[in-house]
Each structure stands twice: as structure tokens, then as C-alpha cells.
Amino acid sequence: MEVVLNLQSFPLLLSLLLIPLFYLIIIKTIQSKKQQIHPGPTSFPLLGNLPQFIANRERFLDWTTDLLAASPTGTIFICGPWKPPMVITANPSNVEHMLKSRFDNYPKGDRMSNALHDFLGSGIFNADGERWKAQRKTASFEFSTNSMRQFVSEAVRDEIVHRLVPFLEAAADRGVVVNLQDALERFAFDNICRVAFDVDPACLDSGSGSGPGEFMSSFEAASELSVGRMRSAAPPLWRLKRLLNVGTERRLRSSIGTVHAFATDIIRSRMGEASRGRSDLLSRFAADGESSEERLRDVVVSFILAGRDSTSSVLARLFWVLSSRPDVVKKIRAELKLIRGARSAEGGEGEVFVFEELKEMHYTHGAISEALRLYPPVSVDSRECASEDVLPDGTRVEKGWVVAYHAYAMGRMVSIWGKDCLEFRPERWIDAEGKYRAAESPYKYPVFHAGPRMCLGREMAYIQMKSVAAAFVERFDMEVNDRSGTCGGHQLSLTLRMKGGLPVRVSRRG
């Protein structure tokens, strides 16, 4: 009797299992048909674009750039089995729509916020709504002050004179190969720590360049592992691993613990010192008396992320390009020589350039802007659609879908930059009078974002990058030591880094 009942129940059980499966296939098929409005990877029922995503995971930027270049609208869909479609665009009209016209409809959203929350908390780069507005207001005021600009300029000059130049001179005298990307990250890390909370972690010492850096290495690991969450083909998996505290999630928790402990120690020692005339960002945020220890920690971690990873990423790419472009190096040196002319009569030749002199570096500024165009630190930035919308190019976006603008691809679009878009050409930023000219629209060149979330530290980033570029190019020659032939590849963290670093030999000029 029991056997008969089981056999009779089998069709019913099979139906209960197959109906949800058929329903999911139908839904995914409808989504794949919608996707075909825009050229892109072939979408398979149930699997979506998962096979192509896995096959191109290590070259995601170039893969999606090729797809966007082939799309008449500059927009594509990427679908997966576990999450709603992602709309990726390199269309400036869509970017302006997202970041300005309908700014409130495209917040950071839960997907990104949840993936980064353990690391960044509710800091300015991971916050939405009123919490973001409050931090933005404080930061906007502080970044606009002359005292902050002067504080940043002096911190950069001091780090160059006492750390970066001696480190490079020692490497040149010993004739050793150094990882320039690592040195630049250590330089930027020391610099932003001084600016953010007036602490010197001494990650770049004048000898080996490998000063104490547990905080830095943990910060780097936390960044990469957090990005791994966002790139996961199956988001439920990283949540399960976090619950069980295993694998990458175990390493992420350990790294975040080190970062937060370091930041918390600094905050606790500073809470009673905010009124003593300090100029660092932490003191300025703490001065309002409304920020809790946890919120101050999130502010500090966010600013370290922006200050360390962004400028070092651009400078590493700039020097990599300059290693094969002696014509550009020659023009930068000619510009620096002209600027030196006025100071040499005052006995200042050879010193680090001061703020007023940095303003005269038009060609150098153009070279840095080219590095930013082709290798933006934040290569793809995503938002979440809060309510159903239609983008200017006709793309329909449903509530809860992720919409991302692809700054890396935009720097390689013929429609935006012309047929020479792949060429590194600083002259595109110089006008007829030899002066630097900015991009005609931040929505065509969103390397510092655009709209209400435009990067507040843009001017300070250029101060640091021009100071370092001038000090390096004026004093040293460089040869990339890349026996494996892999230099220049992409390593996707929260910012774009060079895979394997930038191994170089440096030599003193003259």
C-alpha cells in the first residue's frame, strides 16, 4: 500500500518541482528578449550571460568596452541567474541623466551598500540620503578652505622631499628594480594619513621603501575582497561564507578588523584634541560634536580609500606610459625648465615646486588628464534604480535594476574623443595659447564623477599628482623592467591598479 501511494504521488511531486523551474525559464527568456534590443553577449535561458561573464572575468573592462563600442546606443545589458539585469552605459546623455537630471532616482542602492558596508560602513562613498548630505556638506566646506589647500600642499611637499626622492635616489644608486606602483601607494598612504588625521604611518621610508605597513596591507586586502563580493556571480554564496566565517570572508573580516582598530585608536586619541587648532580632516569632522566614534571611523576609512588608491593608480599608469613616450617626457621637462627659470635667480633651483608654480604646469596637467581618461581609477560606477525609468537613449530600466556608467569605456569611444581615442595625446587638453583646457562636459569625462557627487578632492588630487610627476620626471630617468611581458594588465579592486605592479629601474639625471 505504501509503495502504491508513493508511485501515485510521484507525478505531483515532479510537477511541484518543475513548475517553479519552468516559471524561472520563462522569466529569464522574457528578460533575454528585452536585452536583445541592445547588442551585447548572447543571453541564455536561466543562465543569462553567466558563461560569457566567467570566460571574460579577468578582462571584464576590455570585454564590456568592446560590447559598448558595438552598441549603437552605447548601452548593453548583462544578465545573471541570481540577480536582476545590470544596465551598463557609455552614453554621456545617460550618464547626465543618472548623475544629475534624475539624481534622486539613482542612489548607491542596497546591492553596493551591502557589499561594502562591512568595510566602508556609512562613510560618504557608501552612503545615501540625509546621511550622505550631512557628510557632503561638512566635507564641501572643509575642502574649499585655503587653509586645507595649504595644509595638503605642504604635506605633499614634505613627503616628496623626505621620503619619495630619497627612496628613488637610493634605488638609483644601488641599481635595483623597484615596484614603482607599490612605492607610490605607500607615498599616497602616508600622505593621506597626514591629511586625514595628522598621523604618519611611515609606510615609505627613505631606504627600502618597506616601512611598517600592516594597516596598509590590510586595507588593500579589504578593498580587493570587498570588490570580490560585487563581482560574485552568485551573491548568496558570499553571504553564506560570511555567516560561516570561512574562505575569503574570513580573510575579509580579519583585514577589516585591523583597519578599523587602527582608525579607532586614532579617533579615540583625537576626540579631546579637536579644538587645539589641528588642520586635518578628522579634527574638522569631530569638531561638530555630533559624530559618533563609528561614524568618524567610516569617514576616515572612506577618505583613505579616495586619497591612497586614486592618485597612486593614475601616477603608476602615467609613468608606465611615459616609459615608452620620450617625446612626452621631453615636453614635460621643457615646461618644468621654463617654470624653473624665474626661481633659479632666487636660488631655489632643485626644490619641490610650490603651489603657484603648479598652476603653470599646463602640459603636465594635460598628460595627467590623459592618464585619467584612459585609466580612470574608478572604472565602472554603479547605481540602483529606485523607480521605473527610461534613459535618454530609450533604454527602459525597472525598479531595483543596477545601472552602471563605464568611465573606462567612455575614454575609448570614437563618438566622444574621435578616431585617435586610443592614443595618449596630452595636446588634446591644450588650447591655442598653450593653456590647459578642461573637458567640455564632466558627463563625457566622469573620472571625478559628476553632478552632486562630483569629487571634492579633485583639485587636491591634481596638486599631489603634479607635484610627484614633476619631481620624478625632473630628477630621474626610468626603464620598465618587465621580463614576463605582463606589465600593464588590470587588477580590479575598488580602484584600477596595474596587475603585478610596475617594476622599474631608475637612474639619476645628470
UniProtKB/TrEMBL annotation:
One GO BP annotation of this record: lipid metabolic process
SUPFAM superfamilies in the cross-refs: Cytochrome P450
CDD domains: CYP86A (cd11064)
Annotated positions binding heme: C455
Matches recorded under PROSITE patterns: CYTOCHROME_P450
Alphabetized UniProt keyword annotations: Heme, Iron, Membrane, Metal-binding, Monooxygenase, Oxidoreductase, Transmembrane, Transmembrane helix
Cofactor or coenzyme needed: heme
Pfam families membership: p450
Sequence intervals crossing the membrane: 12-30
Gene Ontology molecular-function annotations: heme binding; iron ion binding; monooxygenase activity; oxidoreductase activity, acting on paired donors, with incorporation or reduction of molecular oxygen
Family indicated by similarity: Belongs to the cytochrome P450 family.
UniProt-recorded name of the protein: Cytochrome P450 94A1
Organism: Acorus calamus
